[in-house]
Amino acid sequence: MTEQNPRLVRVYDELNSGTWDTDFYAAQLSAEPLRVADIGCGTGAFAVRLARLGHQVVGVDPSSAMLDFARRREGAELVHWLDGTAESLPSGPFDAALMMGHAFQCLLSDEAILATLRAVRSRLAPGGRFMFESRNPVAKAWLGWNTPENQPSRTETASEGPLEESYRVLSAKNELVDFECWNKFLSDDEEITERATLRFAPASTLDTLLAAAGFGAIRWFGDWNGADFDPRSSAEIIVIAAS
Predict the structure, then answer these.
(1) How far is CA 145 from each of CA 9, 142, 181, 202, rounded to the nearest angstrom?
(2) Res 107 pLDDT > 50
(3) Which of 37, 74, 113, 126 gets the most CB atoms within 10 Å of its CB?
(4) Methyltransferase domain: from which residue to which, for each copy (predicted)?
(5) C-alpha span between 65 and 138 (Å, rounded)
(6) What letter does residue 228 receive in the DSSP assignment?
(7) Neighbour tally for 210: CB within 10 Å
(8) How does the average pLDDT of the chain come out, rounded?
(9) Is 50 exceeded by the pLDDT of residue 1?
């Protein structure tokens, strides 16, 4: 994984403050204190939110820039932070594990998905749950990602001032979407281009891999309002899998 630029991390934290997904996941957890693993915790906003509710939270992420930001945010002392992946988590056991922000789509092969699922499953207490989401490939979300040529969007940020950015999909085949994001900080004209690949695995593949990893009862949702998942039309594949 390419390491994120610290300036982009600050902007990411500021511009990705919506709570539609975190509210959904928080509602799945009981009010009593739980042991929770936040996998791909990013800048740590949700991990700190859960810790403030009384849960014992471990936040793990492979990006040192993301973790540096997380460790400096207010309330960071309530969370145990780790540099790494699901395989880096302590043995637990955890009552719940989460992988949100579509971080699950960074797992690009069946082998990578299965390794993560097995690592999580082995660290869950009996009856513990793993919650994550992935975009439904049928919805083809990437078709709306391209920015019109020579028309970058402009955003005013509190952390970095005015920012221009544009997205370009480079390829979309075999469930993998390769794209790049161009950013220009107008305060000093620094330009940063980042490239990434995401996998759009169908629910049928996820179901097979979850079973292979030893997960039992699985609940499927199609949006953040809790609608049932419809493989033909849902934009999201939201999974709550019990150990």
Answers:
(1) 20, 5, 10, 20
(2) yes
(3) 37
(4) 36-128
(5) 33
(6) B
(7) 19
(8) 96
(9) no
Q: Please tell me the distance from the alpha carbon of residue 53 to that of residue 128, in angstroms, as a whole number.
A: 19
Between CA 38 and CA 49 the distance in angstroms is 11
221's tokens:
């949702």
Dig out the tokens for 33 from the structure: 């204190």
The β-bridge partners of 79 are: 57
Q: Which two tokens stand for residue 122?
A: 């082995």
DSSP β-ladder status, 56-61 and 79-83: parallel
Token pair 């299965």 in the structure block, residue: 114
Nearest to 91 by CA among 55, 131, 124: 124
Residue 31 tokens, joined: 């009010």
* Tally of CA atoms within 13 A in the half-sphere of 199 that contains its CB: 17
Tokens representing residue 167 in the block: 């997205």
Distance separating alpha carbons of residues 199 and 206, to the nearest angstrom: 12
* Side chain identity at residue 141, one-letter code: A
Question: Cβ(226)–Cβ(236) under 8 Å?
Answer: no
Write the single-letter amino acid at 99.
M
Q: Among all chains, which residue has been given the structure tokens 């955003």? A: 155
